[in-house]
Amino acid sequence: MKPNRGNILIGVVVFAALAILHDRLGPQKISAGGAPCCAPFASAATLPPGTEPPKDGGGDENLVRPADDFFPEWANSAEFNQPVLVRDTQSALGRLSASPKEISLKDLARMHGHLCDGLVISFVELKAALLRLFPDGVVDRTDLRIVSKNGPCWMDAAAWLTGARINFQTLRVDSAVGDGFIVQKISTNEAWEVRLKPGVFPEALAALEKRIRDLRANGQPVDPADVDRFEAMANDLIRHLLNTPPDVLLVLAPRPGYRFQFNDLYGGRGDIINRDLR
Ligand SMILES: [Zn+2]
Description:
By secondary structure, the chain is an alpha/beta fold. The protein has helices at about 5-25, 75, 105-110, 115-135, 150-160, 205-215, 225-240, 245-250; strands at about 85, 100-105, 140, 145-150, 170-175, 180-185, 190-195, 250-255. The longest helix has 21 residues, at about 5-25. The structure holds zinc ion.
């Protein structure tokens, strides 16, 4: 449509009407989908307990910022909870960045949805393997392939900490790897397998988790107190993992000659290699 005086006039009238509505009703009332159209945070009336007002004076004293209670202070201040330094490309067509960035356990917990023992085991294990592959402490996230079991916490940690992805065929899902990972540097083929030492994961926690899952699988009710007990035990394990030197917790084994295969669904045909043999 070519601009003409009529179109311009209609535009001015619509803009003026919207401005008046915005002024009269406030920014949150004229959002069509029910969500605030302009406010970065929900209003105080819609937030659950445990929230606090913004400390940066973000412009509107009626707005509140959600508390970071998904990540407790005892985890934040744990002795071995340092972030991983990583390097990525600078843009969609960019060079490898010269300056590293930090990826923390809190970053992983924020995106995963919660802090759990699986996420922390994954963080501790992957970090140790990455530091073997990148002894200068800066991890090139464009140069990694990972093998992980199909667990929500394990897969999330593997993808977000290392940059390996299923869609790039750099993240193999293989439950045979168990509660550990194989981490490979693409450019050199150097590979390390990492897992917890026997006895680090408490048998009582494994037994309680299995009992709760079995009850659910059989349609049986679960005692909420058991879930509370499970969470308390998982938090005890997380505390232990984040306050213990990695070499006390982990077995790291080199995997020389490791051949990464993205998945087992496609492959060469093995039964015909001798078909022309005489
Ligand atoms: Zn989890």
